[in-house]
Amino acid sequence: MATRPSVWTVIVAAGSGTRFGGAKQYLELAGSRVVDRSVTVAAQVSDGVVVVVPGGDVEAESPRLAASAVVAGGSSRADSVRNGLAAVPRDADIICVHDAARPLAGPDVYERVISEVRSGAAGAVPVVPVTDTIRRVDGGVVDRNTLQAVQTPQAFRGDLLRAAHAGADDATDDAGLVEEAGHVVVAVEGHPRNIKITHPDDLAAAEAWLAP
Question: What is the C-alpha separation between 12 and 158, in angstroms, rounded?
Fold first, then answer.
């Protein structure tokens, strides 16, 4: 009988929230903190969860977060992901990377990206159609039918994700690093409610999604 591949998730919650005006990962959203919501869902589909927080918060958050490990972030998002990867067991078959600022990502989105990697893909990302009209800064409208908005969680073969990060400096998207390393990352269906909390209005929108 085949052994089920192990799955670990790295949740990136190390940002300072400059655009938001504060550490948005600790804000309350319908009775739970943003970061806690992200951890709770990740734990449902993972064998272990590593949360990356600002360095000064590790001591306070370690007993508070229901995670396998809480580690300090780095000077960039990529550095923070690498710090998280260092706390993931080397034998983890599949590693998901998720932004804590997307607290409404459901288990279904995780299952879709994980399933693709279990089936042999190097990586998988959830996407949604771009509904806004996009205009280039030098003029002209971009055909939005050729565009997709990328979400997290993103799932990857553990060895490929580690190798991609080992040979890179900085990146805002892990899938891009894996693709630059020569691997194919597939897209799966995301979810419109899987919004990213970037501005205060986004928190209100998330609360609306959670309203009964």
Answer: 17
Q: Where are the alpha helices (DSSP H) in the chain?
A: 34-45, 58-61, 77-86, 107-118, 158-166, 174-180, 200-210
Render pLDDT for 17-69 as a digit per residue (tens, 0 to 9): 656 656 889 999 999 999 999 999 999 999 999 999 999 999 999 999 999 99
pLDDT digits (tens, 9 = 90+) for 158-174: 999 999 999 777 777 89
**Domain enclosing residue 114, as ranges:** 7-210
Q: What is the number of domains present in the chain?
A: 1
Instruction: Give Cα separations from 14 to 35, 56, 150 (angstroms).
Output: 10, 10, 20
Residue 151, domain member (yes or no): yes
- For residue 1, tell me if it sits in a domain: no
pTM for the model: 0.93
Q: What is the CATH number of the domain that holds 58?
A: 3.90.550.10
